[in-house]
Amino acid sequence: MNFFEKVYQAVKKIPYGKVATYGDIARLCGRQRAARQVGWALHQNPHFIEIPCHRIVNRFGALAPAFAFGGAHIQKSLLEQEGIEVREDLTVDLARYRCTELTE
DNA sequence: TATTTGACGATTT
DNA sequence: CAAATCGCCAAAT
Q1: Each residue of A9-25: pLDDT tens digit?
Q2: How many CB atoms lie within 10 A of CB A28?
Q3: I need a labelling partner for A15 at 20 to 30 A (CA). Which of A2, A8, A84, A99 fits?
């Protein structure tokens, strides 16, 4: 399995109402320092629809300001839809929503 | 074909 | 404690 596929699998493992950081996903893939490739895997996003990119945030808890699915406010909506509180600057409270259960 | 860049983060100095 | 450097690897130039 390619590193990219591992990323996709890990992302899909994120439980409802939770978020994960790039570093967390990288660690789940066996490459803690490969956070960059995690972001890239999502950028490519061959499974775009199937992968909840909105649950992926950086270490600060901020969503990717990039083009994500056509609009940052879409991410905000999706996160709020899952019960996640999103600030105006598209940041979430990692202390509450980070999927610690998955990363351990 | 070679170099640079890129949704990032940890480690070292 | 803050700044600089390294790691990661595929795609774009």
Answers
A1: 999 999 999 999 999 99
A2: 22
A3: A2
If one counts the domains in chain A, the total is: 1
* Nearest-CA residue relative to C1' of C7: A33
Of A61, A44, A42, residue with least CA distance to A53: A42
Residue A102's pLDDT is 81
Task: Give the pLDDT confidence score for residue A70 in this predicted structure.
Answer: 65
* pLDDT tens per residue across span A76-93: 899 999 999 999 888 999
A42: domain range? 3-103
Q: What CATH number should be reported for the domain holding residue A52?
A: 1.10.10.10
Q: Is A53 a catalytic site residue?
A: yes
Q: Please tell me which residue in A11, A26, A53, A72 is annotated as part of the active site.
A: A53
- Measure A20 CA to B7 C1' (Å): 13
